[in-house]
Amino acid sequence: MTQQDLQVAGIGNAIVDVLSHAEEDLLQQQDLAKGTMTLIDEARAERIYAAMGPAVEMSGGSAANTMVGVASLGGRSGFIGKVRQDQIGAIFAHDIRAAGVAFTNEPAPDGPASGRCMILVTPDAQRTMATFLGAAVGLGPEDLDRQMIEAAQVTYMEGYLWDMPPAKEAFLEAARIAHAAGRKVSLTLSDPFCVERHRESFLDLISGHIDILFANEAEIMSLYQTDSFDAALQQVRDHCEVAALTRSEKGAVVLGREEVHVVDAAPVAKVADTTGAGDLYAAGFLYGYTAGYGLYDCGRIGAIAAAEIISHFGARPEAPLKDLVAARL
Hints:
Blueprint: E1 8-11, E2 15-21, H1 24-29, E3 37-39, H2 42-51, E4 56-60, H3 62-72, E5 77-80, H4 87-98, E6 102-103, E7 115-121, E8 127-132, H5 146-151, E9 154-158, H6 165-180, E10 184-188, H7 192-209, E11 212-216, H8 217-223, H9 229-236, E12 242-246, E13 252-255, E14 260-263, H10 277-290, H11 295-310, H12 321-328
Parallel strand pairs: 1-5, 1-9, 2-7, 3-8, 5-6, 9-10, 10-11, 11-12
Antiparallel strand pairs: 2-4, 7-8, 12-13, 13-14
Helix pairs in contact: 3-10, 7-8, 8-9, 10-11, 11-12
């Protein structure tokens, strides 16, 4: 694969996920808000890791998961993120390349350790994340692969990046590069708490730089400070070309300038772990969008990808998404 034929380039935190089943009381003991992501330092990461049960380690990070999903669908994707030259960084780089995603960033020789995310999955399949960003937090404009961004039909960025000033600068520079090349820019709001921290600057970002927005119900209502999903839906239409708003088992609403589509959730026998559901929905949607599908079918592909990921433990596909879409679309 060359960068000249990329469909989607993702920019995000390069993280290795550490997943474990957990009871509710562990979340309370570690002062973690259920169903959200909490940023932690390295010392707290070590404490939470020591309190966890048996765990599975696999490369993760929101935008990285999305790029792996695009590749599993048969699409061409790349990822931009920062790791340290350490064991965790090597795991991340190997896994994402093995999944078929272009990854050109060289590991940093010094500085903070590579990032990791402790994911505690409670019996109701909700995931609670405690994230040590580590080296990922140092992502700046100098780490951008300009050729990758110019080559990709869509550059996709995770809202979590907006927490850190150097990454924020990288974000804005990537959007400028993409638009100068006649490409599209996409954003996921990532987390309700993330929206609360950056509401005003997110609104400026979306209206000024974003073509395709992804958000779940809680995030979009937080963005517009309303208790009504319908009210939030009407407001977002004025701020971007396309918005894909997910509502868990209620499916999703996909908005274009002149279109509104209600897309059902894809059936799943049993929800095992909701980790990565939004990431894989975005993967399916962006794959469809860059492959020329209409917005309704983009939503259907997203729903199929999300259903596969919540049917098992972990945020990376276990079955080729390309085959599932071919059978069910």
